[in-house]
Structures are given as structure tokens and as C-alpha cells.
What we know:
Number of domains: 4
Distance between the termini: 70 Å
Largest sheet: 5 strands, mixed
Radius of gyration: 26 Å
Helix content: 40-55%
CATH class of the largest domain: Alpha Beta
CATH topology of the largest domain: Restriction Endonuclease
Strand content: 5-15%
Amino acid sequence: MSSVKPWSISTTVRNPTRLRDFLQVLAELAGKPFDASVQREYQIRLIQKRMYRPSNIPPEYQQYFENPDIEITYQVAEQVLDAQGYEDPSMRGRQSANPLNKLGFAIAVERLGNVKITPAGQMLLEHPEKASDLLFLSLLKLQYPNPISRDFPARKGFNIIPMLGCFALLAILEEEYGIDALHKDEFCLFVPTLIDASRVQEYAQRIAAFRNSTTQERKLLRLDWVREFYKQENLSESSLQYKNLYEYGDNAMRYFRFTRYLQVISDPLRGDWQIRIEPSRKTEVKMLLAAFSPDARPFNSLQDYLDYLGNPEEPVLPWKQLDSLKEVAYSLRRALRDIHTALQLKPTDLFEVDFDELSAAQLEQIIVQMREELRRLSLLEQQERLRLSVDSLIQHASVIEKLNKQKGIQPEDFEHLLFKILSAINDEELIQPNYPTDDYGNPISHAPGGKADIECFYKAFAMIVEVTLDTGNFQWVREGQPVMRHLREFEERVGTDLVYCLFIAPKVHQDTYSQFWFSVKYEYQGKPQRILPLTTAQFRRVVDVLRERIAKHGSADHLLLMRLIDAATAVNHLNGYHEWRQHIQGVLDQWATEVAGE
């Protein structure tokens, strides 16, 4: 059997926003030798801190994972780990530390002695707002082969810095073939298998041929390429090797996207996405490719590589020079001018700044300012484009209908979809998604813990929107308490009595209804709340009613939404959450009929 394999970043920590959480737990073990006992201890601590949830939780310990207010002791976490029946429990700890080692945030390798948090890791712990920038620097240094890993050796054909290889591939595709973005299939099949930088041009040719083939030809080409790469003629689409490429590709996309240097546009309706160089950062990427090769760098020793990987000042970025900073600033100003023109806005002071008069430090500061302004205006442009768009509501409602069947939809896709729907309905003073975005307002991850997914401000009321794709038995654990807490914090912040919450999921579990029922009927932290849980099918109906209203009258009043939530959360006459569930459906039916007749 062939030993050829693709490169991968991490399938242990799939969401790069969680790297810091894993690092915080590892930091508790700093100074200890990362031997089998400490590897085991690390995994136990991850369970204890709810960073890792094992699949097999004994009944006597279920309560610890069902109720987030119950503290998990170290002893309980240890017994939960033991209940998994792992042949080598310490291996789980090694796997959990692996992405932190790969990316230079920690050194937790048994043969390298004591656990150490590197300067880059320390910066990530102390400055979480720099997470995207730190990951970007790490990915510019992550290479195969490297002295710390034995998994991707040169003798097996590895010679690549994956992110730079991806940049180089995208640059050639755009310059020579007019292809400015890779589709999901193309990225997953060809980027993780690009293990040798000398083959970038060849891969570009292959992708161009793939793109120009018919749908039927493409299906054969996919399988032919996987068989060719692995050197196995009997592989099928159901083989592990074939599936791994999509798993590794999807994971790499998430890490690359989080840096904000690669932009991902999702199409939940088709279960597809496209990835391209972030338009506002093409100048920087061009400089990177001129300054750095995608070939793996030679290092004199393991320590040299570890020092380089863990240094947050390395590599020195080519645009740190004064002239390069000016070039970046001018490119951003052009992007800002374009969006100002599209929105018919008046020029701002940013257009009058003489970059030639600024120091390097001042230019860096104004570049940050321009990116923030570009992000803000991009969200505004999205809303203006969507406003009162019947066509977009038809399309988005179609996606909602398929959410419980469609594979590949991610939490950030769902959050972005709701932002677009609420923007299209119009009549708001402000709609603010809390997911982090790229420079053009597209999500790079889902909303972080501790914040509502979306905050909405209308003339008559304020509202948060919480969404989840979770439909399992533990939906109420992961969503119930956090949603109620987010709403209470939002209520206190906005300082008005009329504050609502829409909770939307493909299916609302009965235990989630029970949680919200108590809050609506009685209290949460001393006061009742107005929470309306809706299934995606029910919310689809809300969207259809408001869409028809827009088509008929040219607008949709936010008071219609207020009327629905008020009626659905008027529960004094009800006994129990089962009656409330039926009440919600009845209110929705009546509301839809009344609004249609108005």
C-alpha cells in the first residue's frame, strides 16, 4: 500500500478560535515533563474545563455535562476519561496538544522535555484580539518537512509551506487562467495534496482542466486524481482516503480564512463554498510571494526551528517597510473609494490624508483604521443590497427549509443567513452580527461564546437572535442557559423594557422548550424574559409572510414581528411547556392569517 498522504493542519481543534482555550489549559501544566502521565492529565483537564466532551459518558456523570452550573471535579473528569476504554488514554492528550505544537504556540512533546508556552503562545493568551494575526504568522512558518514532526518527511515528497503554496497557486490561476477563486471540490482535492512547491504550476494546469470539464467528466476526474495521488487504483468515493481530502481541506479552509488573508464565500443552498485571496489584501499577498518561497526552509537544528516558530516577530513581513506600507495604504483607500461610490457616501477625512507625510508607525495605525472602516461599510453595503429584496428572501427561505437536510452548513453560515434575512426585511435602526468578519463583512467564524449571535435595534424594541444547528438531546444544555444569560446581559445594556429574543433551530428539543418556558412564565435571575423559540420551518413561514407583505405594500413594519413575539410569550393562561409549544404554533397560524389579510 502506498505511503503517500496529504498534509493537514489539525482535525483535533477544527475551529481555530478554540486554540486559545486549549492553550489556556495546557499553560496550567507548564514546566512539567510532557510524559504519558502529564499527557493523560492534560486530557482530563480538558474534560474538566468542558473543552472536550467524550462520546461515552456514563449515566452517573451525565448531570455534569447536562448542567453547566455544576462544577466538574478533576476526579469526575478522570473517571469519565477512563470510561472511554481507550487503549492509550495519553495519546488523546498528545493529539490535543498537537495543533499547538504545529503552530508554535507551545512545546509539549515528550522527547523535548518540559511543557513550555512559547512567546507566540503567551501573546495569544494575553492578547486574544490578536488571534487572527498570530495565526497568520504561524501559518507562514508551518512547513513540511520540519524538525519537530516525523509525519511529513522529505523522503515522502514533502517540500511545502502550505499557506504560501496556496497563495502561489491562487496567484497563478488568476494571472494565467482567469480563475480568481477555488471551489470546495478544487480546494479539497488539490490544495492538501500540494505537498511539493515545485509542482504549483502543474497543479494550476490540472485545476484549469478540471474547471473546464463537464459535470460528468469532473466526477471521473475527481476519482482519477485521488487514485493517482495515493497511487491506488482501487479507491472509490467511499474510501477513507477520498473522504480525508475533504476533511483536511475543509479544516485548512477554516484556518486560512481566520487569518483574513483568504476570503471564503459560502453557498449553503448548494453546500458549496469558494475561496480566494482577500481582495483588500492582494497587495500584501503579492509582496509575500515576492519575498518568500513556498518551499520548506532549511534549519540547522531543531532548536532553530522551535525558536523561529514560536517567535511572534517572525517572519518579518515585507510590508513593514515605509514604501510598502504606503502601497498597502493606497490600495485600501482605493477599496474605500469604491464602496463609498457604491453607497453614494461623501468622502471622509481618510481620503485627505497625505501618506507621504506619515511615519511607519502612523501608517500602520491608519491601515488598521481603514480596514475597520472597510469592514463597517461592507456590512452596510450588504444590508443596502438586501434591503426589501423579495428575490433574496425567496432564496434565503429556500435555504432555511433545507437546513435540517443540507450537509456542510456551518454555524457561521446559519448566522450570516439570519443577518441577511433580517436586513432584507428592513425597518431596523441597526442590525449587528457578532461573528468576526473578513474585510468585506463575510464571517470567518461563528459568534464567540459570551455574546448573542445577532443584535437588532428597532424603533419600538430591541432583540437578540440566537441560532443553532444542534438538534440533539443536549441542545438545552448548550443553548438554554447561555441564551437566557445573553438576553439578560443585553437587557441590562440597552436599558429598555421591550427586549426580545428569537431562538431558531432546525428542531427545538422539548427540554429546550422546558428551559425557556420557566424563564418566560416565571423568571430568570429574578425577572421573566420574552423568548420565542421557533423551528426553521416555523421561521420559514414568518419570512414568507413578511416577504409577501413587502411584495404587496413595499415594506414590512417591525411592529409585525413585535406583535408575533408578544402574543407567543403571553403565557399566563398556560400550564406547562407542552401547552406553550402548541400555543406558539397557534399564534403563528393566526398571525400569518391576519397579516396576509391586512
